[in-house]
Amino acid sequence: MRQSLTFIPTLREVPADAEAKSHQLLVRAGFIRQNTSGIYHYLPLAHKVIQHIQSIVRKEMEKAGAAELLMPVMQQAEMWQESGRWYTYGPELMRMKDRHGREFALGPTHEEVITSLVRSELKSYKKLPLTLYQIQSKFRDEQRPRFGLLRGREFIMKDAYSFHSSLESLDDTYNKMFTAYSNIFSKVGLDFRPVIADSGAMGGKDTHEFMALSEVGEDTIAYSNTSSYAANIEMAEVVYQEEANSATFKELEKVHTPQVKTIQDVAAFLEVAPSACIKSVLFKVDDAYVLVLTRGDHEVNDVKLKNLVGAQLVELASREEVLEIIGTEPGFVGPVKLEAEVEIYADLAVKGMTNAVAGANESDFHYVNVNPARDVSVKEFTDLRLIQEGDVSPDGEGTIQFAKGIEVGQVFKLGMRYSEAMDATYLDENGRAQPMIMGCYGIGISRTLSAIVEQHHDEKGIIWPETVAPYDLHLLALNMKNDAQKELAETLYERLKEEGYDVLFDDRRERAGVKFTDSDLIGLPIRISCGKRSEEGIVEVKFRKSGESQEVSVDELISFIRQV
Ligand code: ATP
Ligand code: MG
Fold first, then answer.
1. Is there an atom of ligand 1 within 6 Å of 151 CB?
2. Which of 238, 334, 347, 435 could bridge 419 with an S-S bond, Cβ 3.0-4.6 Å?
3. What's the 209 CA to ligand 2 centre distance in angstroms?
């Protein structure tokens, strides 16, 4: 493609509203433009990258036995009412009415639509398993659209859905998809980790998220420094190591701790370690309250709490709620002689604590010599804390470290969540109706594009991996007014295309400096410049990634490029 004919509006300035590097670079290099908050134009270069990512995805889906289709974006409310999500999805679901007042949603995901399609067409176990996918724009009215394409309100997703008559068959497809995802993210050049994720909200069982490692990632991954173990921080189990403790229980004592509210302050005031204090936090779980105990140096993991009590919503109780329920300030809440009728759950590490410090449920007072085994009536001791760096890895190998990740994909065993709610059944071998077993598998295509840029850039611009680069080669005629340079570049442009390369030809009447700067910004893998030595038939070949360059004679150019 001739650069004079396409549309690559590069910028020298960093756009003021762009925080993430990928957002800045994609705007500056002329790949994207914002239309309105969270909604973007994919300009010609981004469109090419998207097509390359999609083609890698399509090949892997084909290998995994998934067939492509295209479903409606506009979805009638009835299906969402059947699944129940019309009422639970919240304001992220873009809702609208047609001229007759009937309600619709713009698809944020397609479980309802595909379940309604398959239930009316597929009747026999003989037609199962079936895996279908599409690549399409999705709509979610995100509370905080940000980081450009990383969190948009309209974005491109590949979404696949599988239907089965047995759990073994679901496992089989899940594993195939897992492999496909690993291949896809490797091929597009991402440094990623599949991590164990939370399946709570969607009511399924197994699920993994594929995380591109990056500082701008919004998720924290806990991974082992020696094994392949990796989990979302909320999902990482903590291995409880019981320590031998021969301390004798001392007598409970109430001490005056004026204005001493945080664990840090209490520990400093009483000259003990934070780990010798019991942290007592009141949570609201749906309509009830529970008190959760952890060691002072640990944090409550509210996903574990949510799963333990089976609640829809878990949140910290407000100061007002604490005052009302417990009758004291949050800083003085404790589990001893608690008058409020709330159940107490404690993390395993609290179990073995002896002669510890805890709030006395009275302003400016704490207890010392608290022994949970003696003084506290705990409903259940279980794993309730967030894992920390340095903890033993849950698989027993190595220790835990943290990294930030961008969720680029997710695979999910839905089970019968949708088929039961929407009555999607098939007839088994005995002619009996059974709910279909389902899986779903998403990839954020536009988010993946941004994640690639997050991982592949330098101070000059983007450095595209060859597999997804918008073009293979950037051919520059440094001075279009110079006949030798212009002619050589034109000839090479035709030759390289004939050889099967996808070439971006900078034929603009711009200065060489402008062309070099734009070329580095755009970041194609190889740059070929026709400059001063064009008359001798010599061009410069430069590699974007290594920065190395070399003069090559035109006769050897094709074979040289083919080699590298
Ligand atoms: P997140 O937790 O980041 O909001 P999600 O878990 O809600 O994402 P899924 O429902 O699993 O997202 O959607 C499948 C994939 O679509 C995600 O793995 C992600 O790559 C992509 N995706 C989700 N929301 C967005 C968005 N707002 N903008 C761009 N891509 C998105
Ligand atoms: Mg997800």
1. yes
2. 435
3. 7
Q: What token pair was written down for 458?
A: 């330098």
Asked, as a colleague might, if the bond just before 525 is cis with ω within 30 of 0, I would say: no
Q: Quote the strand ranges of 416-436, DSSP E.
A: 425-427, 433-435
Q: What is the pTM of this model?
A: 0.91
3-state class of 389 per DSSP?
coil
Minimum-distance ligand to the CA of 145? 1
Give residues with Cβ within 8 angstroms of 533, minimum separation 6. Answer: 539, 551
Q: Which atom of ligand 1 is nearest to the CA of 109?
A: 10
- Range list of β-strands (E), 228-330: 230-232, 253-256, 278-285, 288-295, 314-316
Query: Ligand 1 centre from 445 Cα, in Å?
Result: 10
The answer to whether the CB of 372 is under 6 A from ligand 1 is no
CA of 139 to the centre of ligand 2 (A): 14
Residue 443 CA, closest ligand 1 atom number: 15
Closest CA to 356 of 400, 298, 423: 298
Q: Ligand 1 in contact with 159 (CB < 6 A)? A: no
CA of 198 to the centre of ligand 2 (A): 9
Q: Is the CB of 359 under 6 A from ligand 1?
A: no
Give, in order, the Cα–Cα distances in Å from 419 to each of 174, 350, 475: 18, 42, 54
> 407 in ligand 1 pocket by Cβ < 6 Å?
yes
List the pLDDT tens digit at each of the 564 positions of the chain: 999 999 999 999 999 889 999 999 999 999 999 999 999 999 999 999 999 999 999 999 999 999 999 999 999 999 999 999 999 999 999 999 999 999 999 999 999 999 999 999 999 999 999 999 999 999 999 999 999 999 999 999 999 999 999 999 999 999 999 999 999 999 999 999 999 998 765 445 689 999 999 999 999 999 999 999 999 999 999 999 887 778 899 999 999 999 998 999 999 999 999 999 999 999 999 999 999 999 999 999 999 999 999 998 999 999 999 999 999 999 999 999 998 899 999 999 999 999 999 999 999 999 999 999 999 999 999 999 999 999 999 999 999 999 999 999 999 999 999 999 999 999 999 999 999 999 999 999 999 999 999 999 999 999 999 999 999 999 999 999 999 999 999 999 999 999 999 999 999 999 999 999 999 999 999 999 999 999 999 999 999 999 999 999 999 999 999 998
Q: Which amino acid is at 486?
A: K
Q: Which residues of 424-448 are buried (b: 16+ CB within 10 A; e: fewer)?
A: bbbeeeeeeeebbbbbbbbbbbbbb
Ligand at shortest distance from the CA of 38: 1
DSSP helix/strand/coil, 284: strand
Q: Is 192 helix (H, G, I), strand (E, B) or coil?
A: strand
Tell me the C-alpha distance between 289 and 137, whole Å. 41
Atom 1, ligand 1: residue with shortest CA distance: 407
Q: Which of 26, 185, 447, 450 most suits a substitution to test ligand 1, by most atoms within 8 Å of the C-beta?
A: 447
Choose one of 407, 452, 454 to mutate for the ligand 1 pocket test, by most ligand atoms within 8 angstroms of C-beta.
Answer: 407
Backbone angles phi, psi at 384, to 5 degrees: -130, 5
